[in-house]
Design goal:
It holds the Pfam family AHSA1. By secondary structure, the chain is α+β, with helices and mostly antiparallel strands. It is built from 3 helices and 7 strands. A 7-stranded antiparallel beta sheet has the order 1-7-6-5-4-3-2. A hairpin with a 2-residue loop joins strand 6 and strand 7. Helix 2 crosses helix 3.
Protein backbone atom coordinates (compact mmCIF):
# COMPACT_ATOMS: atom_id res chain seq x y z
CA UNK A 1 0.00 0.00 0.00
CA UNK A 2 1.39 3.39 -0.96
CA UNK A 3 1.68 6.00 1.73
CA UNK A 4 0.26 9.48 1.30
CA UNK A 5 2.77 12.28 1.71
CA UNK A 6 2.88 13.37 5.34
CA UNK A 7 0.94 10.32 6.55
CA UNK A 8 2.95 8.27 9.01
CA UNK A 9 2.82 4.49 8.75
CA UNK A 10 4.16 3.72 12.19
CA UNK A 11 4.19 0.23 13.62
CA UNK A 12 5.40 -1.71 16.63
CA UNK A 13 6.50 -5.35 16.75
CA UNK A 14 6.95 -7.47 19.88
CA UNK A 15 8.28 -11.04 19.93
CA UNK A 16 8.19 -13.49 22.82
CA UNK A 17 8.77 -17.22 23.22
CA UNK A 18 6.43 -19.47 25.19
CA UNK A 19 6.81 -23.02 26.47
CA UNK A 20 3.46 -24.09 25.10
CA UNK A 21 1.79 -25.69 22.11
CA UNK A 22 0.34 -23.29 19.51
CA UNK A 23 -3.24 -24.31 20.34
CA UNK A 24 -2.82 -23.12 23.94
CA UNK A 25 -1.52 -19.73 22.79
CA UNK A 26 -4.37 -19.42 20.27
CA UNK A 27 -6.88 -20.21 23.03
CA UNK A 28 -5.29 -17.60 25.30
CA UNK A 29 -5.63 -14.96 22.55
CA UNK A 30 -9.21 -15.77 21.54
CA UNK A 31 -11.04 -17.07 24.62
CA UNK A 32 -12.98 -14.39 26.50
CA UNK A 33 -12.33 -15.92 29.94
CA UNK A 34 -8.63 -16.41 29.26
CA UNK A 35 -8.14 -12.84 28.03
CA UNK A 36 -10.05 -11.56 31.06
CA UNK A 37 -7.60 -13.40 33.31
CA UNK A 38 -4.37 -11.91 31.94
CA UNK A 39 -5.49 -8.78 30.03
CA UNK A 40 -8.14 -7.26 32.29
CA UNK A 41 -10.52 -7.22 29.29
CA UNK A 42 -12.42 -9.98 27.53
CA UNK A 43 -11.77 -10.32 23.82
CA UNK A 44 -15.18 -11.29 22.47
CA UNK A 45 -15.82 -12.61 18.94
CA UNK A 46 -16.49 -15.79 17.02
CA UNK A 47 -13.07 -15.12 15.39
CA UNK A 48 -14.29 -15.74 11.86
CA UNK A 49 -13.05 -13.50 9.04
CA UNK A 50 -15.30 -10.46 8.71
CA UNK A 51 -16.73 -10.80 12.23
CA UNK A 52 -16.64 -7.96 14.73
CA UNK A 53 -14.63 -8.25 17.92
CA UNK A 54 -14.69 -6.26 21.15
CA UNK A 55 -12.19 -5.70 23.95
CA UNK A 56 -14.73 -5.52 26.82
CA UNK A 57 -14.11 -4.40 30.38
CA UNK A 58 -14.37 -7.14 33.00
CA UNK A 59 -16.09 -4.91 35.57
CA UNK A 60 -19.55 -6.07 34.46
CA UNK A 61 -20.30 -2.86 32.56
CA UNK A 62 -20.02 -4.53 29.14
CA UNK A 63 -18.19 -1.44 27.84
CA UNK A 64 -15.88 -2.12 24.90
CA UNK A 65 -12.75 0.04 25.04
CA UNK A 66 -11.46 -1.25 21.70
CA UNK A 67 -13.40 -2.63 18.73
CA UNK A 68 -12.53 -4.00 15.34
CA UNK A 69 -13.10 -6.56 12.64
CA UNK A 70 -11.42 -9.93 12.19
CA UNK A 71 -9.43 -9.64 8.94
CA UNK A 72 -7.80 -13.07 8.95
CA UNK A 73 -8.19 -16.08 11.22
CA UNK A 74 -6.06 -19.20 10.73
CA UNK A 75 -6.12 -21.23 13.97
CA UNK A 76 -3.65 -21.77 15.60
CA UNK A 77 -1.22 -19.84 13.40
CA UNK A 78 -2.35 -16.31 12.56
CA UNK A 79 -4.93 -13.78 13.70
CA UNK A 80 -5.32 -10.33 12.14
CA UNK A 81 -7.83 -7.69 13.21
CA UNK A 82 -8.46 -4.01 12.96
CA UNK A 83 -8.11 -2.06 16.20
CA UNK A 84 -9.79 1.21 17.12
CA UNK A 85 -11.68 3.19 19.71
CA UNK A 86 -15.47 2.84 19.42
CA UNK A 87 -16.92 5.73 17.45
CA UNK A 88 -13.57 7.53 17.13
CA UNK A 89 -12.22 8.12 13.65
CA UNK A 90 -8.57 7.22 13.24
CA UNK A 91 -6.42 9.17 10.76
CA UNK A 92 -5.71 6.88 7.83
CA UNK A 93 -8.22 4.25 9.01
CA UNK A 94 -8.06 1.90 11.99
CA UNK A 95 -4.82 0.37 13.10
CA UNK A 96 -4.24 -3.33 12.53
CA UNK A 97 -2.92 -6.02 14.87
CA UNK A 98 -1.39 -9.28 13.64
CA UNK A 99 -0.58 -12.20 15.91
CA UNK A 100 1.66 -14.87 14.38
CA UNK A 101 2.20 -18.14 16.26
CA UNK A 102 5.18 -20.14 14.98
CA UNK A 103 5.88 -23.56 16.58
CA UNK A 104 9.42 -24.81 17.09
CA UNK A 105 9.75 -28.10 18.98
CA UNK A 106 8.07 -27.69 22.35
CA UNK A 107 7.93 -23.87 22.17
CA UNK A 108 6.30 -21.19 20.06
CA UNK A 109 7.41 -17.79 18.92
CA UNK A 110 4.54 -15.32 19.29
CA UNK A 111 4.90 -12.14 17.28
CA UNK A 112 2.46 -9.25 17.63
CA UNK A 113 2.66 -6.45 15.08
CA UNK A 114 0.55 -3.32 15.52
CA UNK A 115 0.47 -1.25 12.30
CA UNK A 116 -0.99 2.02 11.05
CA UNK A 117 -0.42 3.88 14.29
CA UNK A 118 -1.33 7.56 14.01
CA UNK A 119 1.81 9.13 15.48
CA UNK A 120 4.84 8.56 17.67
CA UNK A 121 2.80 8.99 20.87
CA UNK A 122 0.43 6.22 19.79
CA UNK A 123 3.40 4.01 18.85
CA UNK A 124 4.95 4.54 22.30
CA UNK A 125 1.63 3.75 23.98
CA UNK A 126 1.31 0.58 21.89
CA UNK A 127 4.88 -0.45 22.75
CA UNK A 128 4.29 -0.08 26.49
CA UNK A 129 0.90 -1.78 26.35
CA UNK A 130 1.96 -4.75 24.26
CA UNK A 131 5.07 -5.40 26.38
CA UNK A 132 2.92 -5.53 29.52
CA UNK A 133 0.14 -7.65 28.01
CA UNK A 134 2.51 -10.12 26.33
CA UNK A 135 4.49 -10.55 29.57
CA UNK A 136 1.27 -11.32 31.41
CA UNK A 137 0.13 -13.66 28.60
CA UNK A 138 3.42 -15.57 28.77
CA UNK A 139 3.11 -16.02 32.53
CA UNK A 140 -0.54 -17.04 32.22
CA UNK A 141 0.10 -19.62 29.49
CA UNK A 142 3.14 -21.13 31.22
CA UNK A 143 1.83 -21.16 34.81
CA UNK A 144 -1.95 -21.05 34.54
CA UNK A 145 -2.17 -17.71 36.33
CA UNK A 146 -1.28 -14.11 35.44
CA UNK A 147 1.36 -11.99 37.14
CA UNK A 148 0.37 -11.02 40.72
CA UNK A 149 0.03 -7.35 39.71
CA UNK A 150 -1.18 -5.86 36.43
CA UNK A 151 2.04 -4.80 34.65
CA UNK A 152 0.34 -2.02 32.61
CA UNK A 153 -0.45 -0.20 35.88
CA UNK A 154 3.26 0.13 36.75
CA UNK A 155 4.35 3.73 36.14
CA UNK A 156 7.05 4.12 33.46
CA UNK A 157 10.56 4.30 34.87
CA UNK A 158 9.44 3.42 38.38
CA UNK A 159 11.77 1.58 40.71
CA UNK A 160 10.79 -0.80 43.46
CA UNK A 161 10.80 0.68 46.97
CA UNK A 162 13.64 -1.62 47.97
CA UNK A 163 15.94 -0.31 45.21
CA UNK A 164 15.89 3.33 46.32
Amino acid sequence: MAESPGTPNLSFTYVTYLGSPPETVWHALTDAEATAAYWGHSNVSDWKEGSPWEHRRTDGSGIADVVGTVVESVPPKRLVSTWGLPGAPHPGGPSRVTFTIAPYGAIVRLTVRHENLADEAEREQAAAGWAAVMSNLKTYVETGRPLPDEPWRMPPGSASPSST
